[in-house]
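During the reporting period the student researcher (J.K.) took over the structure-prediction task from the postdoctoral fellow and processed the backlog of single-chain submissions. One of the processed entries is reproduced below for the supervisory committee.
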Amino acid sequence: MKERIYTIPVTDAFREDCECPLCLLEEKLESDALEYTLGPSMMESDSRIETNRKGFCSRHFTKLYNMQKNRLPLGLIIDTHLVEQIGIIREMTEKSLPMIKKEAAATAMERIAGSLKKDRNETVQFINAMIEKLSNLEKTCTICEKIDWNMEKFTDVILYLFFKEPDFKELFMAKKGFCLPHLKRLLEGSLKYLNNRNRSEFIIALMSMQLTHMDRIREEVYWFTQKFDYKNKDAPWGNSQDALPRSIRKIAGPADLVR
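J.K. obtained the following structure tokens:
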């Protein structure tokens, strides 16, 4: 197999014995992104503009804090993020406040009339606008977006190698399938990057492998449950002793599980 700089992370992940090689790729991307956020990105104005505007999801805020590596960079990021978000929220509030106060002071008859015209009610419009703003903020995360962009590139590389490199195709088919979120990503990638003929060939291979290994891990979970029956207490565990964390990752993708 011809190794190129952009294929090395993919082939390295596919050589590992795991339930989903794409999970390994994603976990490495996440680790690198966390380190970068509390390191070099602090000195890059473009990165700070992005974190001020988008912030992080709850999961990545938690991971950044729990790194306990250097509280100052995280404090600076949070400070400027809050400055920007408070400014937006204050501007939206102050723009609508005069009319909201007017509606609050309206007479009973005016309120009844206003209730018949909810679409023109300034308070309702403000609430809907604020909900939309906060909902959009919840959906943005600088780290999630960085990971997603790179995972899309890796998906393209995987599909390219599957058809261009026989050694990689053999490596791919020897895997234990994928977690369901990354199965979805590969399916989406097949629509985006493959022609009709290659897409059909890929889907046959992918789904055959996926179903085989989903059956396997279901059987391992089942045997895990059966080991709690006193009749099976002396029977060997086989591959079932760690079936729960592996099955959770098979279903949900990368997960921080406490053993």
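The committee noted the following: The chain has two domains: 8-143, 155-252.
J.K. will present the remaining backlog at the next meeting.
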